[in-house]
Amino acid sequence: MTSFCHTDPAAKIGENVTLGFGVRIYGNVEIGDNCQIGDFCVIGHPSLKPDCAPLKLGAGAVIRSHAVIYEGSDIGPHLETGHHVVIREGAQIGENLRLGNYSDIEGACHIGDFVRMHSYAHVGRGSQIGDFVWLFSLTTLMNDPLPPSHISEPVTIGDMATVCVNVQLMPGTVIGRGAMIASGAVAHGQIPPAVIISGTDGEVAGPVHFLMHMASRTRHPWHKHFADAYPERARDRIAALGAEIDAEAADL
Amino acid sequence: MTSFCHTDPAAKIGENVTLGFGVRIYGNVEIGDNCQIGDFCVIGHPSLKPDCAPLKLGAGAVIRSHAVIYEGSDIGPHLETGHHVVIREGAQIGENLRLGNYSDIEGACHIGDFVRMHSYAHVGRGSQIGDFVWLFSLTTLMNDPLPPSHISEPVTIGDMATVCVNVQLMPGTVIGRGAMIASGAVAHGQIPPAVIISGTDGEVAGPVHFLMHMASRTRHPWHKHFADAYPERARDRIAALGAEIDAEAADL
Amino acid sequence: MTSFCHTDPAAKIGENVTLGFGVRIYGNVEIGDNCQIGDFCVIGHPSLKPDCAPLKLGAGAVIRSHAVIYEGSDIGPHLETGHHVVIREGAQIGENLRLGNYSDIEGACHIGDFVRMHSYAHVGRGSQIGDFVWLFSLTTLMNDPLPPSHISEPVTIGDMATVCVNVQLMPGTVIGRGAMIASGAVAHGQIPPAVIISGTDGEVAGPVHFLMHMASRTRHPWHKHFADAYPERARDRIAALGAEIDAEAADL
């Protein structure tokens, strides 16, 4: 169904792309095959930056209603968004990013493969996010150490790290691979791999394998009990990366 | 005014329903009489779940612009939403729910009668919310005790409880009737009726009737000074339920 | 491009105003010259208040997609909004307000000139915000000291104050000019000019000129190193106001 859509004739659109009701596609876009774009979305929104590269949207994306994606980003296959998300220009995004409702990717950032975010996640400009990272609701990745200023010290998050609900990542935070930032924590500085950070002082509370759900005897790290939540093509990578991080943590 | 709307002919729409500009109504919906649906709303959005029940939207709803409501929920009369809200499939919602802007109801939950939420409230899947509950801005109801995992331990909130701004309700929290969770608190575990919870340790700070606004000599519980903010048909229920909770608290 | 827009013929629209795709303009509006209104915006949304004044939108506004602005507000020239913002009725707003995505201005408030907000800022009804104020992401300005109640004690923020990420401003907070509320803080009561407030107890941590970014030797107050981020016409005012606040702070 493509009624009441407005597609710039310069837009390059792949095979079998479906548009919802009231979609606007700007001209500076290259949309891969088999994408689904929901109602009232804006795709390829113009940037204020001159001579912006096109938005490259990989095959198989599912973009839910009221999303806004700017020109000038390069997004891998199988993006899946919730409703009302925003992705600004200059984002380099891997395979199968999943975004919760109202997520706000401020652009000029790098996001790896198979990253998941929940609602109201805010990724400040310049952030570097590895593969298989989780950002839960209300997570904020800051970048200005002396607000307001012209200084930019973005956050870096290692592969397979988990950032829980309502966490603030202070400017310049570097999170080691497989670390877990507990809900409500304020993290800063250099965080070792596979540790738990908790509290508003962001202290190390122990290694992640201390985290256990007693009733079900489920424990961290998550790659041992949650790999089936990913597409099958990702599971070997999860196992290999998980083993690597476990070894790295054992060495500390 | 129904210009530039797209209504699936299978949708069942009551008498005297008004649609804004650019509304999309999917087919699997039953909309009651006298509903008002704002501009750029999406009603009956398809779920990924197969064989989803229809969206049943009770009479007299006021749904403001850019809202998204999925199929598969059953919503009582007199829903009133702010702008940009999302309600996912599987929500069982009572009478006269009022939602603030950007509220996110993740579905598969139960919400009682006359519940009020402010902006950016996030209700995780499986949550159980009683009657006359308040959720203020940025409240998050979590459900995964070992994120990310397949374990689900949703939150339960008793009747007439108040959850203030920027509160995190940890997975499995059970809030007693009439309790008040102070702003910025992190609540967890079993919370008795009619107590105040405060701080990031979620400790009991005292009974709610200790809460007093000195200048106006107004004090908690709220049902004694705020029942007039509800429709007249609700006031006897508020008085009866309030008296019950007061008695329950006095017994502790 | 004005296709699929719906403009009430009663709306007063200036010269050289551009509308995106799928814009709705209600009748009770006066839009200044050279405004740009993005896709799927709703301008002049009806208020529930009877006999509401028109929305007066100053010249040169840039309103990004999916924004909702009510009738009954008076907004100075050069408003610039992100996506999905909401501005309710009764807001008196100065020159060149810039709003981040998902900002929620609840109305009946006063906002000075050259104010900047980032994403998910929530300004409660009745708030008073001075000139050159910064509100970073997830900032909440509360107004009800005994929620829920009919009592209203809104927040007042002095000129050039900075409120960092995820700050809660408790009802009735009065922030002195040039103060800085650190990220994650909970502020309350009377806050002196040009001090730093931090922590969930909202204590004074020192004067703002203690704040320094070591690597670049940049220090607070920001008016000495960040005035160039404002339009040229604002810079003399920043210098004069900054000097005034510095003198006021030195007297303490």
Give a topology summary.
3 copies of one chain form a homotrimer.
Chain A: E1 6-7, E2 12-13, E3 18-19, E4 24-25, E5 29-31, E6 36-37, E7 42-45, E8 55-57, E9 62-63, E10 68-70, E11 74-75, E12 80-81, E13 86-87, E14 92-93, E15 98-99, E16 104-105, E17 110-111, E18 116-117, E19 122-123, E20 128-129, E21 134-135, E22 140-141, E23 156-157, E24 162-163, E25 168-169, E26 174-175, E27 180-181, E28 186-187, E29 190-191, E30 195-198, E31 203-207, E32 212-213, E33 218-219, H1 235-250
Parallel strand pairs in A: 1-4, 2-5, 3-6, 4-7, 5-8, 6-9, 7-10, 8-11, 10-13, 11-14, 12-15, 13-16, 14-17, 16-19, 17-20, 18-21, 19-22, 20-23, 21-24, 22-25, 23-26, 24-27, 25-28, 26-29, 27-30
Antiparallel strand pairs in A: 30-31, 32-33
Concise synopsis of the structure shown:
Chain A is mainly β and 252 residues long. Chain A has one helix at residues 235-250; strands spanning 6-7, 12-13, 18-19, 24-25, 29-31, 36-37, 42-45, 55-57, 62-63, 68-70, 74-75, 80-81, 86-87, 92-93, 98-99, 104-105, 110-111, 116-117, 122-123, 128-129, 134-135, 140-141, 156-157, 162-163, 168-169, 174-175, 180-181, 186-187, 190-191, 195-198, 203-207, 212-213, 218-219.
